Amino acid sequence: MSKSLGNFFTIQEVLENFDAAALRHYFLSSHYRSPMDFSKDGLEEAGKAIDRIYETVDRVDRAVNSVAAADGALMASFRQEMDDDFNTPRALALVFDEVRALNRLLDDKQLKGLEPRAAALRSMCDTLGLLHEGYFERKKIRWLGKATISRDGIENLIGERERARKAKNWGEADRIRNQLAASGVIIEDTPEGTVWKVK
Length: 199
What we know:
Number of helices: 9
Shape: flat
C-alpha cells in the first residue's frame, strides 16, 4: 500500500469527502474479526447508506412530534445481534429493515404507532454511533467547497422562486427549481418555509 499508487488514504483526506458517520458505517458493515477491503467505492456506498438513515430520521421528526419508548421487540432483536459476538453487519441490516419500513409507513401516511419504531431506530443508531447533530449542514459545507454555486447564490435563487410562487408565476418557480436541481441542490417546501439540501 502506497500513497504514490493511489491506494492510501489518511483519515483527514477521507473526512474531506465523507462524513465521519459514513466512515463508521463502513467499518461496522464488516465483522470486526473479518478482513475488509478499504475503497472509495465502499465509502461512497456507506455515504449513501448514511444519507438514507438521516433522511428517514428527518422525515419522522417532521411527521410526528411526540416522544415514545423504543419498540421492545425491535430492540430485543438488535441486542441479540450485538450479543452474538458484536455482529454489527446483522445489526446494521436490522437498522435498514426499519428504515425501509418507516419510509413505507410515511409514504402511506400511516402514522399510528410510528413513534416507538422511530425511537428504536434512533436507539439502534445511537448505540452504533451513527447519529450526530448537524449532518446535513456538514454535507452542505463539503459540497459547497467544490460547487460552482455559493450558499448566497442558492439562497438568492430560493428567494426568487418564493417571489415567483407568491405571484403565481408557476413556470418561473419550476424553472428555478430545475436550475437548482441541475446544480445538485434539492429544495423542499415545508410549513416552516423552503429548505434545501444537496444530493
